[in-house]
Amino acid sequence: MLYDKERWDRVGAPVREPWQQVLLNAAELLERDGWIQGCFGSRDGPKCLVGSMLYMTKELSPYFWEARTRLGERTNGNPVGWNDTPGRTKEQVIALLYDCANGRLNDAL
Known about the structure:
By secondary structure, the protein is mainly α. It has one domain. Helices cover 52% and strands 0% of the residues. The protein has helices spanning 5-8, 18-33, 49-57, 62-72, 79-83, 90-101. Helix 2 (18-33) packs across helix 3 (49-57), helix 2 packs antiparallel against helix 6 (90-101) and helix 3 (49-57) packs antiparallel against helix 4 (62-72). The termini are far apart.
């Protein structure tokens, strides 16, 4: 048998919850468009941590709120303030998004 459903359905990329995909997409967006502090950002330009999530969900969906809640657990309840902390870097923000989506603790905090 060439296709064994039992075998092949267990192989491949992990199944992600929608809130995790929001975080991963936001990280990729920041890598592509750039990162900013002090505002949500612009449609075609750099965005902040929360602005990138809003852009990816297009609305304040339950997936956005779940992703924001998960980030809040890692940013003392304030992902906007965490993003805007003086000295914060784009790399730290992107690492937080990836780490939160993948359930890892982030040393950048």
